[in-house]
Amino acid sequence: MENPPGVGELTPPDRTLLGPGPSPVHPRVLRAMSTPLVGHLDPAFVDIMDETQDLLRYAFRTENEWTLPVSGTGSAAMEAAIGNLVEPGETMLVPTNGYFGGRMAEMARRAGGEVVHVDAPWGEPLDPADVQDAFDAHQPDVFGFVHAETSTGVRQPQVPELTRIAHSHDALVVADTVTSLGGVELRVDDWNIDAAYAGPQKCLSCPPGASPLTLNDDAMDKVLSRDTPSRSWYLDLSLLEGYWGDERAYHHTAPVTNVYALREALRLVAEEGIEERWARHRRVAGALKSGVEAMGLELEPDDDYWLPSLNAVRVPDGVTDTGVIDYLRDHYDLEIAGGLGDLDGEIFRIGCMGHGAREKNVAFLLTALADALDSLGADVDPAGGIDAARDSL
Amino acid sequence: MENPPGVGELTPPDRTLLGPGPSPVHPRVLRAMSTPLVGHLDPAFVDIMDETQDLLRYAFRTENEWTLPVSGTGSAAMEAAIGNLVEPGETMLVPTNGYFGGRMAEMARRAGGEVVHVDAPWGEPLDPADVQDAFDAHQPDVFGFVHAETSTGVRQPQVPELTRIAHSHDALVVADTVTSLGGVELRVDDWNIDAAYAGPQKCLSCPPGASPLTLNDDAMDKVLSRDTPSRSWYLDLSLLEGYWGDERAYHHTAPVTNVYALREALRLVAEEGIEERWARHRRVAGALKSGVEAMGLELEPDDDYWLPSLNAVRVPDGVTDTGVIDYLRDHYDLEIAGGLGDLDGEIFRIGCMGHGAREKNVAFLLTALADALDSLGADVDPAGGIDAARDSL
Fold first, then answer.
1. DSSP 3-state of A197
2. Residue B232 and residue B158 share a domain
3. A204-255 pLDDT tens trace
């Protein structure tokens, strides 16, 4: 481009973010991002790294030494986990019950792995019996599952049962906790998860850019004893270990500001208390759920595996998903999202995450959604949502 | 970790960053980072993406459609370029004259490529005759060179001659412009560079986290006609094309805040004018160079390939690099760095980048450095630096 383009001051609209993420960011986290930088090898930054790692361990409920933010968005942390733990020729077992199991498969193949599947329909969790059968049939080396499926709003129950099956077959377990970390009960150590990754822009309410990852010693032993290096240099955990471990050796320039933000977001988690934070998400999302159900809308997943942080609501007859989504954005500066993959056009995805998981947002969402459904002619009677939500609190 | 760790408010020291990056960030860019987020698929964010891409084209001096920020630090943009352009079994020619040529080699191998070398000592640029010989000997498919070698302070001259040689052998050219983009003359289109990547935290003075990459049609045609997908899903440019191209389809959650920051940093480039910005770097770094030379210190590279943005200064007798670096940090809150690889312990690396490339910082650096050298007993007479710098302006 020859001449400087005329680009004005940054003035994005002031949205209320109640979609699948990013979620609303706490003002303290935004303010942390305007802090002048220190160098990524500065002794002061090393202290900040240590603190951030401690705070991450607290949120993950783990003592894992190898707990760090990966320098990229959640998918980078995901590929760091899968690309390092799946060696060429190995087999990874992945689920078919949502969008992100499919992404796991794609990453395992890129790593040189073979992919086998354990089936469940979109909108349902895995059945441990099916996982057991898949292990018996395929003897996979690595098993990936999605704890909180952002595409379907399904929470995987019975995690300790899944990890028990995997470990009895000497497989490592990788958990996608993108939409659970910091909002939904997750116990990496108690549940014997070998590796877990997350995104910061969901229940941690932190801007994306540095993404939580934790590996236990079994997982890290495998990473450090690979026959061939991982296929990405940027995401090679044996090299990242040099930077985030005791050595603090230069690998790449850490995204300093994103680490500042993550540290502040995790401080808010620590101040609230992780169990109290899970309880808040259940309580506030429970009100949201009561409200939309009182409006005649239907939640996609059963109560047994409802995911408080991401509510998949069936699109009612008489309206389209995009009609409602656009109406909410244009009239209310409010973001919710539609479905992905098998559920494209079938559901709304309404987030209740982190700083967004507040009663005021439930009231706002239900009011705005009632107007949208009414104005656009949905075959439901949207009155009564607010009252039901209030009653549930 | 069982209990929440006691981590206090974020209060990093207030450093003046005159090392190899990150460089000092302009207050307008820091402020942009405290802007509340919109969603990564919001129509308003699509406009912001368009504007950022236009501004990047201006800075790169290119009309390339495929010009985008990669969601990671400079090394992620580097691996996106190399990992997509080098197919398994292909040969990449890389230089041996610095740290980052070595990183190119490592990434090319991870991509499944063979690596061949064109030799030059650390601290010198490539000789086109040697590049010609290497092409004749090895017929590589891809040629990588480092326009601005952050480890040695060497600027590669004669770039059009290098690209001519490569194209006469039907090879694609990848340029590392990490430490030149926005500070040192760089003309992607006029110089016929096929792909170039950079870091935002150097001469653009933007926090790391979203990193510039540009590819011309020849390079993108190769990416889109690969026999096998690239080995990283996260950095697969054929998928990123879906998000940053016309389709705007979901791939991963873009680091919204880092894009805000990059857009603001690039607006500052456009307001100043890219050629004026190059001239400022030459003028201010020239004063720095005059100053340190007047103090009896020696710049590592010859004047013909001096890199204004990164000044490699020989450590004088009587002091150690770490002694001086620690002194400046502890007494002046001032960051400079030491050498890497072959030049470890041999040089100081003093950045003059972006918002850091100001006369006030030259005066501060020379004053502080004179004190450090004097106090620590260097075999030089550090008087006279400031006067020489002032005279050169």
1. strand
2. yes
3. 999 999 999 999 999 999 999 999 999 999 999 999 988 998 888 888 999 9
Flag if A37 and B19 touch (Cβ within 8 Å): no
Could you give the count of Cα atoms lying within 13 Å of B309 in the half-sphere of its Cβ?
Answer: 33
pLDDT tens digit sequence for B309-325: 999 999 999 999 999 99
* Neighboring chain A residues of B15 at a CB cutoff of 8 Å: 36-39, 42, 44
Per the prediction, chain B carries an average pLDDT of 96
Is A54 a domain residue?
A: yes
B18 has pLDDT over 80: yes
CA distance readout (Å), A106 to A92, A109, A116: 11, 5, 11
Give the minimum alpha-carbon distance from B219 to chain A in angstroms, rounded to a whole number: 18
What the block records as the tokens of A274 is 């992780």
Q: Are B238 and B215 in contact (CB under 8 A)?
A: no
Tokens 């970790």 belong to residue: B1
CA A317 to chain centre: 30
B349 neighbors B20 (Cβ within 8 angstroms): yes
Contact B38 A19 (CB under 8 A): no
**Domain containing B339 — which CATH number?**
3.90.1150.10
Helix (H, G, I), strand (E, B) or coil at A87: coil
**What is the pLDDT at residue A314?**
97
Contact yes or no for B209/B75 (Cβ under 8 A): no
Based on the fold, state whether residues B95 and B149 are members of the same structural domain.
yes
Binned at pLDDT 50, 70 and 90, residue A3 comes out as confident
Structural domain range at position B230: 27-271
Chain B residues within an 8 Å CB radius of A13: 38, 42, 44
* A260–B233 C-beta distance less than 8 A: no
Find the helix or strand (DSSP H, E) in which A107 lies: helix A99-110
- Evaluate whether residue A181 is within a structural domain: yes
Task: Give the total number of structural domains in chain B.
Answer: 2
CB < 8 Å to A79, chain B:
232-234
Which candidate from A37, A55, A62 shows the least CB-CB separation from B22?
A: A37
ipTM reported for the complex, 2 dp: 0.97
